[in-house]
Each structure stands twice: as C-alpha cells, then as structure tokens.
C-alpha cells in the first residue's frame, strides 16, 4: 500500500542478516555460542556514574526538555577533558554540542552541508554510518580503501581532481574500527592541509580515543589550524561502558558546531539532562575505572593474540579499540559461516565494512577471558592444532 522513499531504497540491506539468523537458530537449539560479533562492551558502567544517575533522575529540574547544545557544566567538563588529557583548548560556549550518542551526530551532520551531487570521502572498511548519513542527506560517497600496505590510512593524494572538486566532507576514524590502528601526526597534518586547501570539512570520529594500549593516540586538535576544518565526534560509550545511555558530543570549528546544533534543534530536543549529569561524573570523577577497562582489554588482546599465533593466523596487534582485524585466506562470509557452523563462534566478515575488508574477519573482544580461551580451544579443534 505504501512505497518507501527513494532515499530509503538506497540504504543497503543489513549485511549480517544471514549470520544473525543462523546465530539465533543455534541459540534456540541450546548451542553455546561465543559471540565476537558486536562492538558493545560487556563490562558494566562504573558504579560512581550509576550513583550519579540515581541522584539526578530524582531531581525535577532534569525532567524538562534539555534543548540547546548541552548543559554548561557538562560542556565545561568536556573542555577540561581535552585540556587535561591532550593539552588542547576547546571553548565550551561555542565549540561543543552534546549528542544522543556520537552516532546520532555523525548521521545528522551531513544534512547541514551536503547538497545533491556533493561528495563525501569515506574510508572503507569503516563504520557504516558515514555512508548512510551521506545517502540520507542526498550526497554521494567516494570510498577510500584502507590497506595494510598503507598502514590502513587512506591515500588522500590519489583522489582524482574531479572528485576533490565535488567533495564537501572527509571522514577519518582513529583509533580505527575495524582495523584497530592509529593515525600518526604527519598523516593528520596532511589531511588537515588537504581539507583546508580544498575547502573540505574533516569529520574526525574519535569514539575509541580512550581505548588505547601502549600509547595515547594523537588528538587532532593538537595540530595547528585543525579548528579551521575539523569537527570531532566523541562519546562516553566505549570509554565508560555506556553504549546504552546514549551520550556523546561534537567539538571543534564553531561554525560547524552551530550548524549541527540547528539541525538537532529541529529533530531532537537534546540529551536527557540526568544523563548529562551522570556524564559529568564520568568525566570529572575518579578515572580508575578507565585505567582498569584498558587493562582488561589489553589482557584480552594479548591472550587472543597468542592463541591466534598458535593457530597460524596473520594479524597486527591492535594499538587501540577492542577489535582484532585478522587476515584470512578465503572469502570472509564463507569463513564466518564456517566458524559459526563448526565452532559455534560468531565473528564479523570484513567485507561487511567495505570491499577492502574482504580477506579479513573482525573479532570484537567484548567477552571475558574465559570465553576467549574456550574460543581458541574450539578453533584449535577445528583446524587440528
Ligand atoms: C567508529 C565508531 N564511531 C561511532 C560509534 C558510535 O558510538 P555511540 O553512538 O555509541 O557514541 C561507533 C559505535 O560502535 C563506532 O564504532
């Protein structure tokens, strides 16, 4: 009776439907599934944040429409977070907008700047929302392959001139989902210069900025002139195990921030202020839990790495995030299917993140060490090791 819009028709079907169906069937049969699929922390939100939320939710002043770019207190805490961790200055009045999770902002932002025919430069493999947000805004995606031989950085200098002319947005995401790699200072500087020269907005997705192991990733605002072109998206989701709470922020160039705030004013009415209050506790309270979270992911990473090594897999140790990007010999959908059928193990086929993801599988280390151990045992059985 109803026909969906041309825009919705363009949105590709969920690629993992078949795997998800098989997974659910196996669970229904009572099989013990080990799920490395979803990038959603298994650990609980730290108790100090929960306590702050309990208190906030009882306060009637937080029960009204939140409106605007977020509470002053929370925006100040975000600015302090950048100062303390990265020695970077962010003006809480004009350079921050609180979001209902960073995904919300990433998806809405292209509506502010793309006109039909405009191009977004999108790394692949990558987080699918860059492409979907571009499509919804009526723009077109030009994909930039991330290859191991280029340290999983896009080759910006190779983008054809006619594409650069039509490009309005460049997306970058480091620490990177799904590859677990970082971008170095020189690359980010090159990206900023490219964007300045060609009047392109640089969307920097830093959702995993605090999930690092050996060293902290570079903050893009530590590079001179970044604020001329950059809007960074960040989040409490991964740092504080708060994916379900839906709270994040955008920060950077004040013009870009005000445009995003305008779109949001007309679509949602901001982030529940009790959640912003809890977010304030997350950023200003004890950071012991973040240190622990990093330690736990590092232990899981090292443990999984030694298992994969024994199994003979080819991979780079992730520098951050909780993902493992593992090279495989065959087709990634077949591989994932095989692993599910024979080991009752769920992983994500690399091709689901873009064509350059073919030949890889992503494992999300959001399960405990015991389960990781069991998964390695099952894999050894499958491959007779
Ligand atoms: C690269 C990347 N960016 C952004 C997000 C969105 O996170 P949130 O909306 O929870 O802040 C995710 C979530 O998985 C992600 O992987």
Instruction: Note the beta-strand portion.
Output: 5-15%
CATH homologous superfamily of the largest domain?
Type I PLP-dependent aspartate aminotransferase-like (Major domain)
Biggest sheet overview: 7 strands, mixed
The count of helical stretches stands at: 14
Query: In terms of structural class, how would the helical and strand content be classed?
Result: alpha/beta
In CATH, the architecture of the largest domain is 3-Layer(aba) Sandwich
Count of separate structural domains:
2
Query: Number of DSSP strands?
Result: 13
Strand line-up across the major sheet: 2-8-7-6-5-3-4
Based on the structure, what is the oligomeric state of the protein chains?
Answer: single chain
Helix content: 40-55%
- What radius of gyration results from the CA coordinates? 21 Å
Description of the molecule:
- It is built from 14 helices and 13 strands.
- By secondary structure, it is α/β, with parallel strands linked by helices.
- The chain folds into 2 domains: 134 residues, Aspartate Aminotransferase, domain 1 (Alpha-Beta Complex), CATH 3.90.1150; 236 residues, Type I PLP-dependent aspartate aminotransferase-like (Major domain) (Aspartate Aminotransferase, domain 2), CATH 3.40.640.
- Strands 2-8-7-6-5-3-4 form a 7-stranded mixed beta sheet, sandwiched between helices.
- The relative contact order is 0.17.
- Bound molecules: pyridoxal-5'-phosphate.
- The site of pyridoxal-5'-phosphate has 13 residues, from helix 5.
């Amino acid at each position: 009776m109803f026909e969906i819009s041309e825009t919705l028709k363009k949105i590709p079907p969920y690629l993992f439907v078949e795997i998800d169906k098989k997974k659910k069937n196996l669970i229904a049969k009572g099989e013990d599934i080990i799920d490395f699929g979803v990038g959603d922390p298994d650990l609980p939100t730290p108790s100090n944040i929960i306590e702050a939320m309990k208190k906030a939710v009882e306060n009637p002043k937080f029960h009204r429409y939140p409106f605007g770019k977020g509470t002053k207190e929370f925006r100040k805490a975000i600015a302090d977070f950048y100062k303390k961790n990265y020695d970077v200055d962010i003006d809480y009045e004009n350079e921050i907008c609180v979001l209902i999770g960073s995904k919300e902002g990433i998806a809405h932002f292209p509506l502010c700047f793309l006109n039909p025919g405009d191009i977004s430069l999108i790394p692949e493999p990558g987080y699918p929302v860059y492409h979907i947000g571009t499509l919804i805004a009526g723009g077109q995606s030009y994909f930039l392959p991330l290859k191991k031989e280029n340290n999983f950085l896009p080759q910006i200098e190779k983008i054809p001139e006619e594409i650069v002319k039509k490009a309005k947005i460049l997306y970058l995401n480091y620490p990177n989902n799904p590859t677990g790699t970082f971008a170095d200072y020189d690359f980010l500087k090159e990206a900023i210069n490219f964007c300045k020269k060609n009047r392109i907005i640089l969307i920097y997705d830093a959702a995993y900025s605090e999930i690092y192991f050996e060293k902290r990733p570079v903050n893009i605002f530590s590079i001179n002139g970044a604020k001329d072109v950059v809007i960074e998206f960040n989040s409490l989701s991964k740092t504080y195990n708060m994916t379900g709470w839906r709270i994040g922020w955008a920060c950077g160039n004040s013009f870009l921030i005000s445009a995003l705030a305008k779109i949001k004013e007309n679509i949602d009415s901001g982030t529940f202020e009790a959640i912003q209050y809890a977010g304030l506790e997350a950023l200003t309270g004890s950071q012991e839990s973040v240190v622990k979270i990093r330690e736990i992911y590092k232990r899981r990473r090292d443990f999984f790495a030694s298992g994969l090594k024994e199994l003979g897999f080819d991979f780079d140790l992730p520098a951050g995030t909780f993902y493992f990007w593992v090279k495989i010999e065959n087709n990634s959908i077949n591989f994932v299917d095989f692993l599910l059928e024979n080991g009752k193990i769920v992983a994500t086929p690399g091709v689901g993140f873009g064509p350059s993801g073919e030949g890889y599988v992503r494992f999300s280390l959001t399960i405990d060490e015991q389960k990781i151990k069991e998964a390695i045992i099952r894999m050894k059985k499958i491959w007779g090791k």
